[in-house]
Structure formats: structure tokens, C-alpha cells
């Protein structure tokens, strides 16, 4: 089966509601390709490696979290940008990218899907959200358990994500867990204010270690890419099933 580029864009927009968000770059169709869509490849970042793999997989469209264009970016089409655009335009492949809307979707987004992987359930309603534009999630383990330490939580996250975690351990037993995927270390203060005993994100910067030590709230940096591997395939698979399209997730390894 097939659909059109316009119908695919409409389906993504209806699901992710990008108009609700003030973002760092354009959401939606970033590079226009062929009109007829039969197969979507999803991935985290529109890297050259992903684009090449998608072309090899006979994709008509690529769906990612990190697109090509960002606010304040140098607009010249040279170097890596020329290479990526050259591949997309040369093979007539569409590129769709959704940043904050993909983080925020309550069931299929990066935060919802990371919570699902880790066995965390967000609190109901507004109590389960925090931070700017309510991107962050706040909840607890689905079985009602309490992690007795930050080390226990970090070991659990490492088993699930299959990668090391940078832990700044607090002193509190962990009942409430806040999480926000990717480079959301700046949400730590909001997570503390929201009542979190631990905060899970992708990256750490210098201030967060001090905040964790001074407040007793554990901070876990689990990898930007590692925490954002789940939203793009969930959304793309959902829309592909809705429209009768083929879908394939291609994970390009990234240690960050």
C-alpha cells in the first residue's frame, strides 16, 4: 500500500501537534522528496549514516527526532550539510523531523517510551508533568516499589539501556522519579521543585553534580542517544500501521 507525502505529513502533525510547542528548529517536513510513500525508516538523528542506510532499505521517507535545521545555525550548504542534503535530494527521499513534540507525546513520545522501558509510570494529570512546556515526566515504578538508593536505580537503568550511567547519588530513598530524555540536564532544578527523589536524563553539565549533592536528589546521566531511541520508532510504526505503510527502525550507534 502507499500514501502521499501530504497525507503522511498530516498524520504526523495530527498526532504530534507541533503548533503547541516553541522549539529550536522546524518540525514537520524538512526536506521534500517523492510524492508517493510506501516505506518509512525511523531513526534518532538525520546523520549521513542513517540517510545512507535508509536509501539502502528503499525508504521513501525518513522520520527522526534530530533533523537537519536548528535555530541560529549557519545557513550555508557546505561540508556535512551538503553531503546529507545531496543524498536526500539525489534519491528523492523525504525527511520528517519532530523535536519537542516527539519528546512530549503522552504515549508514543521519547519520555513516555523511556518510562515504559524502565517500568516507570507518570502520575495522573498535571502532577505527572514538570518543566518548561511540561516536557518532563514525574512518576514512580509501576509495581509501587521504592529504589533504596541511587545506585540501585542506576543499576536498573544500566541493565535496560545496556550502557554505563553517570550517577551523582543523593541521600533520599527513591519514591518519585523524574525523567526527561536527551540534553535535559537544565530541567534538574524543576524536577527537584516538583518533588523528585531522582532525575533521569541523557547528559550532565557542571552545575548538576552540586545540586544533587546539596539537595540529596540523585542525578543520572544515561546517554543522549540511549534515552531517545524509543520515541521515533513508536510514532513511525503507529503512523505506518494507520496508513498501511512499511516501517523499519535503524539505530545508528552513538556513544553520546
Structural features, described:
The protein is α/β, with parallel strands linked by helices and 256 residues long. The protein has 2 domains: 3-103 and 230-249, 3-Layer(aba) Sandwich (Udp-n-acetylmuramoylalanyl-d-glutamate--2,6- Diaminopimelate Ligase, Chain: A, domain 1), CATH 3.40.1390; 110-227, NIF3 (NGG1p interacting factor 3)-like (Udp-n-acetylmuramoylalanyl-d-glutamate--2,6- Diaminopimelate Ligase, Chain: A, domain 1), CATH 3.40.1390.30. Helix content is 36%, strand content 21%. The protein is built from 10 helices and 14 strands. It has helices spanning 5-16, 48-56, 79-90, 100-104, 110-118, 150-161, 188-193, 206-215, 224-227, 231-243, and strands at residues 3-4, 28-31, 36-37, 39-45, 61-66, 94-97, 120-122, 129-130, 136-141, 166-168, 177-179, 198-201, 218-221, 246-249. Strands 7, 8, 9, 10, 11, 12 and 13 form a 7-stranded mixed beta sheet that branches. Helix 1 packs across helix 10 and helix 2 (48-56) runs parallel beside helix 3. The longest helix has 13 residues, at 231-243. It is elongated, with a radius of gyration of 19 Å. It starts with a strand and ends in a 7-residue tail after the last strand. The mean pLDDT is 97.
